[in-house]
Amino acid sequence: MAAASGLLVRCLLAVAVVSAALVAGAAAGGPLSTRFYSKTCPNVQSIVRAGMASAVAAEKRMGASILRMFFHDCFVNGCDASILLDDTASFTGEKNAGPNANSVRGFEVIDAIKAQVEASCNATVSCADILALAARDAVNLLGGPTWTVYLGRRDALTASQSDANANLPGPGSSLATLISMFGNKGLSARDMTALSGAHTVGQARCSTFRDRIYNDANINATFASLRQQTCPQAGGDAALAPIDVQTAEAFDNAYYHNLMSKQGLFHSDQELFNGGSQDALVKKYSGNAGMFAADFARAMVRMGAISPLAGTQGEVRLNCRKVN
Questions:
Q1: Residues near 85 by beta carbon (within 8 Å), at least 6 away in sequence
Q2: Which segments of the chain belong to CATH 1.10.520.10?
Q3: How many CB atoms are closer than 10 A to CB 143?
């Protein structure tokens, strides 16, 4: 079993690296570049990698948390590190928006990495770029693919709680809603289905999946009963459960196996395999780990290029929690 697992990881890495390299140039677009810090901060990628390696070694769940943070950042006014801003007397940021308040965590990890980057290259690397690199490394450190991260993003000067509440899909979303919300960000239904595979790692609060395990029809009865043991119909909202019932801490394609067994934790997950347009793709990912890895890497490059600030827009924050 261990040998088979190692083979799967090598397959994921090899296929994804090649595939991402082939498509990255076309996918990134805009002002981002692979060599943006080659002269001004050549060690930035190794610094971020070391910081994430330390964080994941201390708590594997943190890898999933940083990946989620990046997704929640990019879907609200682009990949601009607005999610990292603390509330101030003059504006209310995104941290306490409904989709973020109880699910986005790991801000202290980004703070620690930023401090190390600042010590090496003062006022040079944006928090937005650090988060993009950290998300890539989080996936890879959990056994998943790697990809080329295009850099040059600038940091937002403000944030919007209302936009965070409006632009992030929820755990009860329908397939049509998911396709529409991802489409609004320039991502295809295939991108959406691949990116949803991020739910192969991480944990979720009872409040986000209670309705599914008690009320959904398209759910494995044994799986529902298992989750009901720690998620009662009333109370216990903060109780956690692994999103992937098979390999909760490994970035693999087990998520899609779960969907085919009606064991998606969220209603929105199971919508991907519920007699709809994405069923065939879920089956392919379930049977082909390399295809999933390549598509996930490709989609992450595309997502990382959503409306970046560049040039003289925004700023390079010295502290990711506040504007300079």
A1: 93, 94, 95, 156, 158, 159, 320, 321, 322, 323
A2: 2-168
A3: 20
Q: What is the mean pLDDT of each run of 10 residues along the chain (324 residues)?
A: 43 45 42 95 98 98 98 97 94 93 94 98 98 98 98 97 95 98 98 98 97 98 97 95 96 98 98 98 98 98 97 97 97
CATH 1.10.420.10 domain extents, the chain: 192-294
SS3 263: coil
pTM exceeding the 0.70 threshold for the entire prediction:
yes
The CATH classification number of 2-168 equals 1.10.520.10
**In the block, which residue shows the tokens 């943006």?**
36
Catalytic residues: 72
Fold for domain 192-294? Peroxidase; domain 2 (1.10.420)
d(CA 278, CA 193): 7
CA distances from 25 to 50, 138, 222, 267 (A): 26, 22, 46, 35
Pair type for strands 240-242 and 203-205: antiparallel
